[in-house]
Amino acid sequence: MPVDLVAPVIANTPLSADYNVLAFAAPEIAAAATPGQFVMIKAREGCDPLLRRPFSVFERFHDPSGRATGFSILNKRAGVSTGLLYDARPGQVVSILGPLGTPFTVVDAPTEGWLVAGGVGLAPFAVLAQVLRRRGVPVTLFYGARRATELFYLDFFSDLGVTLVLATEDGSRGESGRIVAPLDRALGARPAGAGTMIYACGPEGMLAAAAKVAMRHRTPCEVSVERIMGCGMGGCYSCVVAMQGADGTPHHVRSCIAGPVLAGDRIVWDH
């Protein structure tokens, strides 16, 4: 069950002029969160901003005994709430509700986990990569951004033993172009019978492209959709996603409850 609490900021690590990692002392949420789940955060009291904002659980922290102590979010400054969180200082408190949502399906070896991240879509993959690597699952991160300065936490993933495949739209690091292109080639080059699960998070265009590539290569794919959420608990219907039913009839689900992780081959991408 989610908890609603007031948590102090314990660290603010700027990554660039617009991105930062914000850590909170919230052991109850850190202990319960699983890869792909999210929290709803209200950056300050009052009516501006009025609503909470959703953020994937980025990292989970533990003390030497293994007890959960807190978690972090990957934040991009884009509006009032994200601006306040970019400027937050240790000791400040924020209201947090979570963990919420349906998590990723965690596979076992010898199936490989291929993570496909676009920009701030890296957010759910730190915890997922840690969990997969602890289970002995080979992990590859396909990570794309507009430019090299927006590729973050590469050492973190490398230290876990994750293989990195990078792409930037301006060609400043890795392949020039979009990250789905090397994903497509890698899927086509797999040995016959190789097991792979694709996990994707990022802009909806990238998610649609990754899901369609996965379908073409007959590979399972789970996507973490990004939707505006007013409550995070299914009450406001602001985060609906069109899905294909088993009988072929489209229907809508609330991504805060049925997702944010959804089967890529069931989403109605062209509508």
Q: Can you list the strand order of the major beta sheet?
A: 4-3-7-1-2-6-5
Report, as a whole number of angstroms, the end-to-end distance. 34 Å
Number of domains: 2
Which percent range fits the helix content? Answer: 10-25%
CATH superfamily of the largest domain: Nucleotide-binding domain of ferredoxin-NADP reductase (FNR) module
Major sheet attributes:
7 strands, antiparallel
Coarse shape? globular
Overall pLDDT level: 95
Backbone CA Rg: 18 Å
CATH class identity of the largest domain: Alpha Beta
What's the total helix number? 6
The CATH architecture of the largest domain would be: 3-Layer(aba) Sandwich
The proportion of residues in beta strands is 25-35%
* CATH topology category name of the largest domain: Rossmann fold
Q: Structural class of the secondary elements?
A: alpha/beta
Total beta strands = 16
